[in-house]
Fold each of these.
Amino acid sequence: MGDVDVRDQIIGAADRLFYGQGIGSVGMDAVRDAAGVSLKTIYRQFPSKEQLVLGVLAHRHALWTRGIDAAVAQAGSPRERLLAVYDHLANWFEEDDFRGCGFINAFGELGATSSAVADAVREHKLSFQAYVDRLVADAGAPAWLGPQLAILAEGAQTTAAILGTPNTAAVARDAAATLIDAALS
């Protein structure tokens, strides 16, 4: 097995554990057991737990980006592409292992003690904001709409996780449709 495969195997195992149980409650021995590799192999790939967390966040960013891109690509009109963000959220919120946004979770656990994790989380959130801003521009809507739509998506993620209510995506989608229609009228 090559270094890339081993790295991916470790990240996959750590992601499942961190997302399901929380970063602080998962030790490196648990990652070792779940990944089926030695601690030496893990530390060769990730010299610290923080580096492993950053690897998991990079992995989650790629998953998020692919998921949003796929949902938006299936939509027809610019308005539908904006609303596809919430359709993606609806599908995600229905997953059995949904525990909210992994970035928000990581920030809540480590944001105050790890500037690298806080920076990675901010970078992800700014990337999403820029993505929504591009969709808004493509729709010919005013720039003020982008931050409003992004905050609706962010709030839906947090609310769905805390309350266990997957229909939060539909509520956010309805609010987004109202905002979009007002902006485009």
Amino acid sequence: MDFSIIKDCIAGSTAGMIELETLLTAHPALAPESGGQGELEKVLALEAWLRERGITQLERFDAPDSRVESGIRPNLVATIPGADDSDPAAPRLWIMAHTDVVPVGELSLWNTDPWQVVEQDGRLYGRGVEDNQQGLVAGTFAALALVQNKVTPPHTVKLLFVADEEVGSEFGIKYLLAHHSLFRPNDLILIPDGGDETGSTIEVAEKNLLWLRIVVSGKQTHGSRPDQGINAALAGCDLALRLNGLESVFNQRDALFDPPCSTFQPTKKEANVPNINTIPGEDVFCMDCRILPCYSLGQVRAEVNRCVAEVEKKYGVTVSYTEPQAVESPATPADAPVARRLAEAVKAVSGVEARPIGIGGGTVGAYLRQAGYQAVVWSRMDETAHQPNEYTIIENLVHDSQVMAHMMLQE
């Protein structure tokens, strides 16, 4: 079929897109960490909506979670069989979105009810309308355009709606990778959960992530007698500077990223003593380290331990640390099939020449890449995620859906 027919079908589906956005936003899918009951109500509503419109090949993969009343965190897969569906070696195209959202934050900063979609000036406002319902709705309507026009794609299309992306993915993609064999090595995986205003950047790589919470233990004493104590704050300051200095040790540069270097930054500082005239016996601070993929976390840990040993010897303190986050992710090759097909689709729909980039932040793509699958992150969006008055642009919903449909129809 001529792609223009599918493209026009999607362009005429804005009322349906607004309807689905409205339905999804009305079911707050908050994690128990955020005081919610998870994603089940939202996923049940989505399942029913899909079945009513002809997407009936649905399968659930529920992760157990005793913290929510239902006891489960649902992950849903919708399948549109392709011409080569019976071939066990054929690649499938996955479009992966998450159903959970973040809390609204300070309600007084919202101009509208965050759980009720409001359309204004070509935008839809509400919590979750962009993060990640833009990607969810766009993928859904790309698939619907095929179903409604009775088009069988060359390769099977899988829409994956995962739980728990906002709070660690333990009950979402990490659960699926650990307990179910959903993916094939040659599958194409698109995650429409990040991008830019023009849709010109395809995220293929992430910096390795290492968060450190460091506890320096010395000996508390009166501020007038530092000779009788061991100043944990002084040792902590020295250690923070040494760790920051690792930026000159891991000093390679990669133009794929912005900034193009590894960063080791002290961030959070916890309270020690409540008064000025006491030398603290304990000092706690945190580091946010974003490391280019050419370095392993093992290499970084070795240098961290060297710095720790030097400070312990110099000041007579003891130092321990934990890693609240440690994620190591290989890159998807810039010329991987999924990246090439996406770039071709973006060019066909909007005329934009998309380019590969790396980012310093973390996405669920890292878990897929760790498991050996090639994934890319892309969308055309203003990046209003987690903000008050979050919005999605209706034109972007249409554009992203058309790009995804083009990918679905590629041989």
Amino acid sequence: MKRWLFIILSALCIQNACAQCGIENKAFQEGEFLAYDLYFNWKFVWLKVGSASMSTVKSTYQGQEAYRASLITRGNERLDGLFVMRDTLVSYTDMELAPLYHRKGAREGKRYYVDELWYTYPHNNCHVKMHAISSRGEHFWQEHEYKSCVYDMMSIFLRARNFSAEGMKVGDVIPMPITDASELKNSWLKYRGKESFTIEGTDDKFRCLVFSFIEHEDGQNNELIRFYVTDDLNHIPVRLDMFLSFGSAKAFLRTYQGVRSPLTSKIK
């Protein structure tokens, strides 16, 4: 009897902690699919070097209802001559977007590595089990427990799409603690205001909210990505400017399907 009581109470704690780390989802629905063209700056010329796609479906994780979000990036032969890029990211969250599991398998240059994260929520804390496979095939395991919520790059992306910029001022920041299989990053979003953006090769013009994703490392604040998201309930990223160690890259939205709400940000 005591054993079953302990299990029931533990389950309630997990549910409560998940709720604290979640957020009401108004931005997307199952079946959403976004496709992007990737460009790289080479000797002052922007070259198309690959594609990316993101899909979200309803699934289950360890018996509970969940979202499964997948991000796939693929460089083409033109990029392969400079830098090979084959990334596949998969994340499971509960229906309130609290993270449950994350995996990144990445071939970047000559290096292939895997990061895995498992989230549990004992005693209203956030416990993360981490597994890293290095490019040399070495396995590294560690576990950490945090009093506040932490996220991975995919789950924080889903969460950030549900942030409201109403009442925000240019320069306002939103803390976004993100972890991979090695360490917790000190990172945040910075609000840059509103701009209009026309999707490359189309007449589709959108009113956008602009955010920078910034990470503090080695005593410096580094802007890693600048997002342009539609100024409506969907908050679809239509443009991403990426500041990489080997140059600058951009991603432009090419197609979208299964969008949840009307695109009221579209300028006619």
Amino acid sequence: MVTQPGKPAPDTSRRSERSRRAIYDAALALVVEVGYPRTTIEGIAARAGVGKQTIYRWWGSKADVLLEAFLDLGEQAAREAGPAEHEPYVIPDTGDLAADVKAVLRATVDQLKDPRFEAPSRALAAEGVVNEQVGREFTARLLEPSIQLYVDRLRSAQRAGQVRADLDPRIALEFFISPLAQRWLQYTGPITYEYTDALVDYALHGLAPR
């Protein structure tokens, strides 16, 4: 490319970032408006104002685009929340295990009910069931980091003598998150703070009379 004297060369990295951002926005918007099955690479490209070849240069499928766009959306939301809540899903360790887990589950409820997150997260969860590669990526990049936070908090509680020392944290955390995920995915009941608080109380105290 020849440039005129005195004029800087075009910043291709900035142009690429604008295109990438437009593609993220287009993918998320289309999933909300028309649903995941009707969202296509062609539709994303047209909405973003780029050519299909631009998308295929960076991603292999619409699922790949949506997954990356969803991860970026979460990072944006964290930045918008400000420094105090930059990492909204970090489980605090105040010494009160029940209160700490209830707090992070309430934050999860807020996100699950946020229209910006609900449609793409449902689409990715559903696609992961039928597409093994998407399922692995969804688990590794979205679920596993959150799961590890629960594992770390439960291990801290073990060290403090608040839960059984022989407890397997990766099994125990399912008492908190699996019922919530099932209710959200299958629409079997309302997703509320009261519900997640009850999950924590039942998991930590059991069903037997005290």
